[in-house]
Specification:
single chain, about 190 residues, mainly alpha, Serine Threonine Protein Phosphatase 5, Tetratricopeptide repeat, 2 domains
Length: about 190
């Protein structure tokens, strides 16, 4: 009677170098899917030195994708502040808040008193849970352009602040307070 022998493990599965390469490949793939190209690139480079030709070939394809994205990001030239801001909004929309913050901080240095840049920073702060900074930046943006009030009232990026009374005060200011300040200014100027 023939005995069945225990299934043999593949030589690749027993090789610790293969196991390490597979772990690097999987980690690199996760980073790539999260658009963290700087993190994915060295992981795929480690796979290239591994023993598996199949993993090496796959890692090489993903490494090329990383390099293309990194090259595009480093050579990215925007024709205007508005175009750069649109790029920031697209990053925020896909949830890449870290890269969005890097770009909006560059924009803030480039155009420090631009209302929509400060408004975008307020939205990003709100999305990332920085409530105090969000309120401060929103107040600054509204001082520069009161028309942004209407946009902020309907902007889902500020949903975290919807119940905050300070947010409500910014978006729905008391007109009587403005009139009393204006009338006291006129009284002072008549002297």
């Amino acid at each position: 009677m023939a005995q069945k022998s225990a299934p043999k493990k593949s030589a690749a599965a027993e090789d610790p170098r293969y196991t390490q390469a597979l772990q690097n490949y999987e980690s690199g793939l996760r980073a790539l899917q999260e658009h963290k190209f700087e993190k994915a690139k060295p992981l795929f480079e480690k796979v290239l030195a591994g023993p598996s030709k199949e993993l090496t070939d796959r890692a090489n394809v993903h490494l090329n994708v990383c390099n293309q994205h990194l090259d595009r990001a480093s050579t990215q030239q925007f024709k205007s502040v508005e175009e750069h801001y649109d790029y920031v909004v697209s990053l925020m929309n896909v949830g890449d808040y870290v890269t969005a913050r890097e770009h909006i901080e560059k924009l803030q240095k480039q155009a420090p008193k631009t209302d929509f840049v400060i408004y975008g920073l307020a939205a990003l702060d709100c999305l990332t849970g920085h409530v105090e900074d969000s309120l401060k930046h929103l107040d600054e943006a509204l001082r520069l352009n009161a028309g942004l009030r209407f946009q902020a009232r309907n902007d889902s990026d500020f949903h975290n602040l919807a119940e905050d009374p300070r947010f409500t005060e910014l978006l729905y200011p008391d007109p009587a307070a403005d009139l009393s300040q204006e009338s006291s200014y006129r009284d002072e100027s008549t002297y």
